[in-house]
Design a protein that fits this description.
The chain has 256 residues and is mostly helical. The chain contains 9 helices and no strands. α1 runs antiparallel to α5 and α4 packs antiparallel against α5. The radius of gyration is 30 Å and the shape is extended. The N and C termini lie far apart (101 Å).
């Protein structure tokens, strides 16, 4: 479900001009839009609503309230269909079939509705478990998790939501430490699984690894330490003149 919501959000970002009343000459791509330092208000509201929907869905999941999930599902289904088939065509004067971004956005939300329906049918798990990414170890999940951690404030937002919505005796600082330890152990396990597939346990490191990676890092650190001093020394030496001469001549005072 999270993937469907993220893909719908990505469609909104990439096809932002399709979700607002934009003139043909003002339709720009995302990079050109950011370079203008102008964000349309309708586009910003749509992004904010979708983001808050993801947050609310996560809170309902952590609280494990099936009644809230059912009510939320009904409201979202009615709101999405009313927006896509009534408000959006009236606001933009465009038909649904002629807008590829609308179709893609609606397909991803239909996938979200289907998965949410299966979740309502099967119910929430009694115990909170990690996501499917954290239950699989390998270089693929490692890269996905590193990309997830690279998004600014996303990991911090998840940790805070989990602490707010989970019954626990831990304070916030200890909860953050626990989450940080879990993230570190996951990355370590992924690296260990990937590493063990290429080497045997107890086998010493080959020379090309030690001198190829370690040696280059040593040279890089030496360069970082001494390059600024060498650079300033060369610049200072070239800027100092070799010799200088000064001539002074006294002229007689004019008569009164």
């Amino acid at each position: 479900m999270l993937l469907s919501s993220l893909l719908a959000l990505l469609v909104t970002v990439l096809g932002w001009s399709a979700f607002g009343k934009v003139e043909q000459q003002n339709k720009l791509d995302v990079s050109e839009l950011l370079s203008t330092n102008y964000i349309p208000s309708v586009f910003l509201i749509i992004l904010l609503v979708q983001f808050m929907m993801m947050i609310l869905d996560r809170v309902i999941y952590l609280k494990k309230s099936m009644i809230a999930k059912y009510i939320y599902q009904v409201i979202v289904v009615l709101a999405v269909h009313s927006y896509m088939f009534i408000f959006q065509p009236w606001f933009t004067r465009e038909s649904f079939r002629s807008m590829a971004a609308w179709i893609a956005w609606y397909i991803f939300f239909c996938c979200y509705f289907t998965l949410s329906a299966f979740q309502i049918q099967s119910g929430y798990p009694r115990l909170s478990t990690d996501s499917i990414i954290l239950r699989t170890y390998g270089w693929v999940t490692y890269i996905i998790y590193i990309g997830y951690l690279a998004v600014p404030f996303l990991w911090e937002l998840e940790v805070l939501l989990n602490w707010v919505c989970t019954e626990t005796t831990l304070t916030l600082d200890y909860w953050v430490k626990l989450s940080d330890i879990k993230a570190y152990l996951f990355k370590l396990k992924c690296w260990q699984v990937t590493y063990e597939s290429a080497y045997y346990l107890g086998e010493k490191q080959p020379a090309y690894m030690k001198y190829g990676i370690g040696g280059l890092l040593v040279l890089l650190l030496i360069l970082i330490i001494w390059f600024p001093l060498l650079f300033m020394s060369v610049v200072t030496t070239n800027s100092i003149p070799d010799s200088s001469s000064t001539k002074c001549r006294l002229l007689p005072l004019p008569p009164y």
